[in-house]
Amino acid sequence: MIQNVPLSYVLIVSTLMFFIGIYGFLTRRNLITMLMSVELILNSVNINFVAFNRYLYPQAFQGHFFAMIVIAIAAAEAAVAIAIIINIYRNFRSIDVENVDQMKF
Amino acid sequence: MFEQITFFVIAAIILVFSVLTVTSRKILRSAVYLLFVLIATAVLYFMLNYNFLAAVQLTVYAGGIVVLIIFSILLTSHISERAVMAPLKQSLLSALATLAGATLVLMVILGFNFVPNTTPVADQTIREIGLALVSYQRDGFALPFEVISILLLAAMIGAIVVAKKEKLILPGKKEMIENTENNSEQ
Asked: Which of A105, B72, B134, B161 has a Cα at 20 to 30 A from B32?
């Protein structure tokens, strides 16, 4: 744990980061920036897991490994999402959610 | 004292660059701001003494995902292009909703008294982490490790199949494919 920094400070940072990510997801109109907002959300959840692990259960591993698995899932999700986005760009010549209004190719 | 100051600096960097990530009008810039946020998070992990996790964060997130995102930005939009945001009314409503959510969660967090556990920290060398990752005993993580490897394989195959240029001409789809080919020639 960090000297003189209580757990709630870390949780405040991660909460604010989470809701900033949600704000970005709601207001952005570009698929890639929406993906970046999702990365922010996943990252804030990781901070939570790690902080709980370190402050409340320092003898255990669970939060640490869960954060690692979330990182791996984020990588897989980014790869698939970017493949889909590039395919959408090829078909619509745009990646704005306003223009992508049909799912059948 | 020194650690406290470092924590506040890192927290400020994380919050400021998160806001810039979601509000910047230039897409490439917001990707770079996201990179700063991820690196600051890795520093936070270093401060919490999770060295291996911080290294994973740096290599996978900052090294892999951000580079992937920057590549796809360069493939799909012009450098000078300015991002279109939601209409003002929708932005205000989203800001209101997220502020309400953040206030609620912060009230719950600040109202709860977390008692830090002072038991000695588990030995978390790379060796311990590696052994725990493949152990199927109690406190082992062999099952999630195998599941995540299958998920990564599936995601890799899926990404290749989705992003591959279509060459098959299925009945009824011929016209569509010719159209897209014409478009790419133009």
From this structure: B161
Q: Taking phi first (over 0 means left), then psi (-120 to 50 degrees means alpha), and beta for anything else, what does residue A38 get?
A: alpha
Query: What is the nearest CA distance from B183 to chain A, expressed in angstroms?
Result: 9
Closest CB from A5, A6, A19 relative to B98:
A19
Q: Which residues of B touch A102 (CB under 8 A)?
A: none
Find the radius of gyration of the CA atoms of chain B: 23
Judged by a CB distance cut-off of 8 A, whether residue B74 touches chain A is: no
Tell me the pTM.
Answer: 0.86
CA distance B152 to chain A (A): 6
Q: How far is CA B159 from CA A50, B156, B180, in A?
A: 30, 5, 20
- CA B157 to chain CA mean position, Å: 21
Predicted confidence (pLDDT) per residue in B111-169, tens digit: 988 887 777 776 678 888 888 888 888 878 889 999 999 999 999 999 888 877 766 55
Q: How buried is residue B46: exposed, middle or buried, by Cβ count under 10 Å (0-12/13-18/19+)?
A: middle
Q: Is the ipTM of this complex over 0.85?
A: yes
CATH code: domain of residue A83: 1.10.287.3510
